[in-house]
Amino acid sequence: MSRRARFVLFAISAVGAAGLLAWAFAGLPEFGDYQGRYGRIVAASAVPDRSATEAVAVTVFDYRALDTLGEEFILFVSVFGVLALLRIHRGERERGRAVGEGRRGPGPSESLRLAGRLLVAPVLLLGIYIVSHGHLTPGGGFQGGVVLGTAMFLLFLSAGYLAFKRVRPVSVVEAVEAGGAAGFALIGVGGLLLGAVFLENFISPGKSGLLTGGTIPLSNAAVGLEVAGALIMILSEFLDQRLLVRERSR
Amino acid sequence: MTTALQATILVLVAAGGLAVVVTREPAKQAAVSSIFGLLLAALFFSYQAPDVALSQIVVGSVAVPAMILLALAKVREGDREREGSGEEP
To answer: What pTM, to 2 d.p., does this model score?
Structure first.
């Protein structure tokens, strides 16, 4: 097809697509016009049913907890995939040694170290807050878990790789990640044993305060641990790869 | 007032998306996409979706750029090593 013919084809289809788009946009509901019925039902029932003010968490960890369980295991399995791929690569690398010997990148600057040190504790606290208040305020296990993992990354930036490695024994992180994933599934089994169906909210939601929402805070904690563990494992595996040469040449 | 804020952020998001595409150097692109993620989070927040905004911050502004940077570092290391040892590419 010549250049000209291709352009004509493009022009015709672009005009057609623009026309269809304009037609579709004209039929859209007004800005801010919400038609979903499910959203209203959940928003109205979250507080009286579960004593949890965060309707999103009630949906994600209670009404539709099975979906979340599936998503959690997607993360779990993809971490395995990443680790498997990276570790194979490392084996290859270690055999063909003595290549990058003596090369050492510049360490983090003083200001970066200082900023990292100042931020580690607040970020850790923020992560714990987001996880523990997941059923009351926006946030929850997933977001808080990533924040917790980020705190470890800050530790690496401020204190260096060796300190990072000491704080992060692989076996413990692996146990935390697996425990978090298993914890959520076990909460589901608890619903089966103590309630009627898998992932049923079998703990009384309570009236007010931090410990409301029944199993929702527990699920948040489990997911938080799993996500934090997953992030730290991927991060440290990447760092191992990146810094293997550097560390050995020391 | 709210609409004006939303419109402003929408324009910023459009500009940010363009900036991500225009930046050609991958390491810089990771940083720009991190800022773009932050803009998106502001957009979600202005549309009263704080949960989505928080997820966007942790994934779009922290996790993904960090992974990109680490992956880039790894790829470059591999390239350099191959050049140094004269192995088959």
So the answer is: 0.80
